[in-house]
From TrEMBL:
Classification via PROSITE patterns: PROKAR_LIPOPROTEIN (PS51257)
Protein name: ABC-type transport auxiliary lipoprotein component domain-containing protein
ABC-type transport auxiliary lipoprotein component domain mapped to chain residues: 32-184
Species annotation: Thioclava atlantica
Pfam family, one: ABC_trans_aux
Length: 187
């Protein structure tokens, strides 16, 4: 009988630990891009961006001085990170060039001319004050033409002032803009 009396107290204590107002959600939301580059892509389908497991987790990761990746369950991404990066990257490439770049699946009746695949191998908010971004992207003809494939590696950093989740989210948004610029230039 005494165990049944403790159950409500345990449930009350557990509810107090999970205060939803303490949980903060941060978007990957780069500023609206202005057309500054020529359209080298035309109509292109962007496949969902692949990222390392730590970068696709709901909790925002950061690296500590001991090299470990840590996170806090009270600081979450506002959306699935891979989906958010894919959508933002498509918007940024389109905005920078005027091209029609849309995330898969292709929603228009006329097929795309190209397909873009991005594999992010590292998107790490390092303990050194830099967001490290590295990987590879592929641009291929959608119609199966042979010999017109483009493969480019990327490796760059974005400064981050601290390991706060809002700062990390802003740095990742800037990284998406930089990656979009590199893909749009096919460089």
């Amino acid at each position: 009988m005494s165990g049944l009396r403790l159950l409500p107290l345990c449930l009350l204590a557990l509810a107090a630990c999970s205060d939803p107002e303490k949980v903060a959600r941060y978007p990957i939301d780069p500023p609206t891009a202005q057309k500054v580059l020529p359209d080298r892509l035309g109509r292109a389908e962007l496949r969902e961006v692949t990222m390392p497991q730590y970068a696709t987790a709901q909790e925002i990761p950061y690296q500590t001085a001991d090299g470990a990746l840590r996170s806090n369950p009270d600081n979450l991404w506002a959306n699935d990170p891979a989906q958010a990066v894919t959508q933002a990257l498509a918007r940024q490439i389109s905005g920078l060039t005027g091209a029609t770049v849309l995330a898969e699946p292709w929603p228009l009746s006329s097929p795309p001319a190209r397909r873009i695949e991005v594999r992010i191998e590292q998107m790490l908010p390092g303990s050194d004050g830099l967001l490290h971004v590295a990987g590879v992207y592929f641009v291929t003809p959608a119609g199966g033409e042979i010999g017109r494939d483009i493969v480019r590696r990327f490796d760059f950093t974005v400064p981050i002032a601290d390991q706060e989740p809002g700062t990390i989210a802003k740095a990742q948004s800037l990284a998406v803009t930089e990656l979009a610029r590199r893909i749009a230039q096919l460089g």
